[in-house]
Specification:
Layout: H1 3-23, H2 31-35, H3 41-62, H4 69-88, H5 95-114, H6 126-143, H7 147-156, H8 161-185, H9 191-197, H10 201-216, H11 220-242
Helix pairs in contact: 1-3, 1-10, 3-8, 3-9, 3-10, 4-6, 4-8, 5-6, 5-11, 6-7, 7-11
Length: 243
C-alpha cells in the first residue's frame, strides 16, 4: 500500500467512525467515492468491509443496549434477504439505477423535513420498514450505501437520537457480518486486504470515541436538522454520478 492510499484510508476511517457514533453514519457515503480515488472498485469494497465491522463494534459498545429491538426485528429479516439477493445477482444489478432511486428518495425525504411538513405515516409503517430494510440490504452489499434507506424509516419513526444511533449501529453490524460470506466467495475480501486493514483498527476506536464525544456535546434540538442535512447531501451525492 502506498502512502497516498494509506492516508486516504485513514481519512475514510476517521470520517466513517465520527459519522457512525455522532450521526448514525450520515457521512458514510463519502467512504467509497474517496477510496475510489486511489483504489479500484473491488479493492475498495473489500478493504472497507472489515473496517466497517470494527467501527460498528466500537459504536455498539458506546451505545450498548440503547437500540430498539422491535424495530430491528422488523428490519433485519428483510435486510438479510436483500443481502442474499444482491449477492446472488452481483454483477447483474445496475448499481447506477439503484443509486438514483435511493438518492432521489433521500433528497425528497430531507426536503420534506426542511419544508416543515410532517414525516409520512406510511414511511414509518411496518410494511415500509420491511421495504426499506430490504433496499438497505441490497444497497449496502453493492455500494456500502445502506444508510439512506434505513435513515428514512428511522427518522420517520421519530426515535430518540441515542436510540436512533444505537439501532442503526446494531443493524449495520449484523448486516456487515452477513455480507462477509458473499465478499469472500466473490473474492472481494482476501488475506491481503485484511492485512492492509489491520493497522487501521486502532484508528477505528479513536474515530468512534471522538464521534461519541461530539454527540454528547450536540444538543438534541440540533440532531434532527443535522441528520436530515446529511441525508440530503448523501442523496445528492448518490444522484450526481447517476445523472
Amino acid at each position: 500500500m502506498t502512502l497516498d492510499m494509506g492516508l486516504m484510508l485513514a481519512l475514510v476511517v476517521l470520517l466513517s467512525g465520527i459519522s457512525k457514533a455522532a450521526f448514525a453514519g450520515g457521512l458514510g457515503l463519502l467512504a467509497m467515492p474517496l477510496l475510489l480515488l486511489v483504489f479500484d472498485a473491488n479493492t475498495a469494497l473489500g478493504l472497507l468491509l472489515p473496517l466497517l465491522i470494527m467501527l460498528d463494534a466500537f459504536t455498539i459498545r458506546r451505545y450498548w443496549q440503547r437500540w430498539n429491538w422491535m424495530v430491528l426485528r422488523q428490519l433485519l429479516p428483510a435486510a438479510a434477504l436483500g443481502v442474499a439477493v444482491s449477492a446472488l445477482l452481483l454483477g447483474a444489478l445496475s448499481a447506477t439505477q439503484l443509486q438514483w432511486v435511493i438518492g432521489a428518495g433521500s433528497v425528497l425525504f430531507a426536503l420534506r423535513y426542511f419544508s416543515g411538513l410532517q414525516s409520512s405515516v406510511l414511511l414509518a409503517s411496518k410494511p415500509m420498514g420491511v421495504l426499506m430494510g430490504f433496499i438497505s440490504g441490497v444497497s449496502s452489499t453493492l455500494l456500502h450505501a445502506g444508510g439512506p434507506p434505513l435513515a428514512m424509516h428511522l427518522l420517520a419513526r421519530k426515535l430518540p437520537s441515542a436510540e436512533y444511533i444505537a439501532t442503526s449501529a446494531l443493524f449495520f453490524a449484523l448486516l456487515n457480518l452477513l455480507k462477509l460470506p458473499a465478499f469472500i466467495v466473490q473474492q472481494q475480501l482476501n488475506w491481503t486486504l485484511l492485512l492492509w486493514a489491520l493497522p487501521f483498527m486502532p484508528l477505528c476506536y479513536v474515530a468512534i470515541r471522538f464521534g461519541y464525544w461530539l454527540k454528547q456535546h450536540l444538543a438534541d434540538k440540533h440532531f434532527l436538522p443535522l441528520v436530515h442535512l446529511l441525508l440530503l447531501l448523501a442523496g445528492l451525492k448518490l444522484l450526481w454520478p447517476a445523472g
